[in-house]
Amino acid sequence: MLEILVKLAEKLQPFRKLTYLLAAILVGIIVTQLLTTPSSAQSSSSYAMLSFIGVIWLILLNILLSLFHKIPALNEESKGVFSRVKIKIQRSFYHLFALLFIGLTLMIVFLSIRMLRI
């Protein structure tokens, strides 16, 4: 599971700056829709809702890119016992983060479905 997230983070790393740009655009759309007059409340709320869902997904993608970019590899040929224990402890924390990330992804999928009423 951890290796899949690492490979995915490494392959998506070139798109990191694009996610920042898209997040800024979507936040701008949300702010613009909230500050406009309520002449067409239904269409503006749908744009704001879609932008909000997009921002949530971009935040999740940035968490993936930031957290799983560099994970220490298992090195059984290291010089000391303490360095192997240290790497195993670090990797166990990354496994915990991976479980939290997958749980957060499932919650965001559920939230997206509920917000879009699919």
What's the mean pLDDT score?
A: 84
Number of domains: 1
Instruction: Give the termini distance in whole angstroms.
Output: 29 Å
- Could you tell me the radius of gyration in angstroms? 19 Å
The helix-and-strand class reads mainly alpha
Largest sheet report = none
Which of globular, elongated, flat, extended, rod-shaped describes the shape? Answer: elongated
Low-confidence stretches: none
Compressed to H and E, one letter per element, the order equals HHHH
In total, the number of strands is 0
- Strand content of the residues, in percent? under 5%
Characterize the structure shown.
The chain has 118 residues and is mainly alpha-helical. It has one domain. Helices cover 80% and strands 0% of the residues. It contains four helices and no strands. It has helices at residues 2-12, 16-35, 41-67, 81-116. Helix 2 packs antiparallel against helix 3. The protein is elongated, with a radius of gyration of 19 Å. The protein starts with a helix and ends with a helix. The model has no long low-confidence stretch (mean pLDDT 84).
